[in-house]
Amino acid sequence: KRSRTPSGNPEETPSWRSAPMPEGRRLKRKLKKEPGGLHASALTIQPEWLSLILAGKKTWEIRKQQCLHRGDVALMASGTSQIWGMVEIVSSSRTSWEDLLASRELHRVPEEKLAAYCSQETGGMVWALQNPRILEQPLACARKGSSINWVKIDDPTMELLNESILRVPDLECRKTAQTLCRQMRQVAEERLRTVRTEYHKARYAANVKEQSISDTIMQVSGWLIFAPAGPCQVLGLLVLELLERRGAGEGKCGCKAMDGTPTLGYWKIRGLAAPLRMMFYYKGQKFNLKAYGEDAKDKWFGEDKPKLCEKNAMMNLPYLIDGETVVTQSNSCLLYLGKKLKIDVEECFIHNHQALDQITELRNDLMKVVYGGTKEELPADMAKHMQGPAAGHLGKLEGFCKGPFLCGGQVQSADFHMFEMLDQHTVMCSELKSDFDFKKYPKLLALHKAMKEHPALSKYFAADCYTKYAFNNVMYTRFVGPGFEGAFGPTTEKLVEF
Ligand SMILES: N[C@@H](CCC(=O)N[C@@H](CS)C(=O)NCC(=O)O)C(=O)O
């Protein structure tokens, strides 16, 4: 069994050597290359300690071993795949128990935790830290391998990280711990939502053990200690959820996000409904997937549309039926699901909404390409679209994306729309052999990757509505996408359950 650091992390194979501990030097800003540059792996630290380090309020990290590395190390909040910033390791040296006790303001570890970790005879190893920097936005980094303390940083993240390092503000103007805590809280809430979804799924499969409930509380409460506003609120929510789950009747899903089974109606294509379908999958919310096919003249225009027009005079495709509520207009449907499925948060509302509008403009320009001209002209028309309107919209969205998602640390409704547009554009460019360089949009590429790898979306990416549906209306378009085969077929309706 591995021992644990006072920060709560199990120790892993160390790479430490002692060195003198410099005091109060003016901090260097410029990144040095290895050795002494950025470590190839990120160090994971519990969020509450991480926030203190990045705020410059904890300059001693106590470990059992020495550290060979000198220079920058990226810091990842443990239990997540998010890098929040970096710090320079300037030395590691053995420090006596007495000195550790006398230097509490440098390491912040309470005596009882120290006693559980360090020996009174030999003290502990102190890694001296300086020059903490907080990234403008946390970076998602794919976790590989089994190491808990050190996570190898993948190449794209390393590239972004190096760029970020060069852009980080001076110590004088770095973000306060409060800002960091606010961001961490957003991530905590996002995590809480994922945990809830997982819980509901497991419960539905009658597979929940009491152990997983206490694990969940442990996992989430680690995030709450340093959230300046509303930790109790978040914890309270969790406790309420757990009580509710325990009280719920056997076999019943405790999910109260939407009443009954909502219906999503659209053409049997990805089109404007793909992001909406994704949102249902993302939250594990069962729904009726109505997909109009080659008989739409009767089934949609002749039957469903006139009936639905009685409830909503603007009726169009896509639409959502949720009990008595009937919503149309794709962006309104995205916002409706964002709210009802508890994906969107109030503080991101206007940023998210602006992104939705910009993505719609990008889509409208793409539609001019896929629904006009001949097949032979398509590659040239697409190239013109990419160099002109698409480059303009993507440039704006790249600048507007806070990273890793459009509104920052948590997925909002616009991210589903953004994903679909990035997916369609990249696939089209690759199918049409366009040499358009998407690398100019690193944040958007990272968003696309993060969504594609999101565990809550794995079922969506395996579903026919993603893999087999045409991108555009088969009856009118000159680009259907690589997954579409055979005939458009008749209108279908199926219950998607999780
Ligand atoms: N602005 C609307 C556009 C809706 C629209 O144009 N829908 C097309 C498919 S993308 C359609 O075929 N509508 C069926 C109809 O006109 O009844 C939205 O964003 O939802």
Plain-language structure description:
This protein has helices spanning 47-54, 97-102, 104-107, 111-117, 155-167, 177-204, 210-224, 231-247, 274-283, 296-309, 330-340, 349-370, 378-400, 413-431, 442-452, 458-462, 464-467, and strands spanning 16-17, 41-45, 60-63, 67-68, 71-77, 82-95, 124-140, 150-152, 263-267, 287-292, 319-322, 325-328, 492-496. With 498 residues, it is of the alpha+beta class. The chain has 3 domains: 16-175, Hypothetical protein (Archaeosine Trna-guanine Transglycosylase, Chain: A, domain 4, Roll), CATH 2.30.130; 183-247, no CATH class; 263-496, Up-down Bundle (Glutathione S-transferase Yfyf (Class Pi), Chain A, domain 2), CATH 1.20.1050.130. The strands form 3 sheets. Strands 3-7-6-5-2-8 form a 6-stranded mixed sheet. Strands 12-11-9-10-13 form a 5-stranded mixed sheet, with helices on both faces. The model is unreliable at 8-35, 166-178, 206-211 and 217-256 (pLDDT under 50). Bound molecules: glutathione. Residues 271-272, 305, 316-318, 329-330 line the site of glutathione. Residues 271-272, 305, 316-318, 329-330 line the site of glutathione (GSH).
Q: What proportion of the residues form beta strands (DSSP E)?
A: 15-25%
The share of residues in helices is: 40-55%
Task: Give the overall silhouette.
Answer: elongated
Bound molecules: glutathione
Number of strands: 13
Q: Can you tell me the CATH topology of the largest domain?
A: Glutathione S-transferase Yfyf (Class Pi), Chain A, domain 2
Enzyme class: transferase
Family: Belongs to the GST superfamily. Mu family.
Keywords: Transferase
Domain GST C-terminal: 345-479
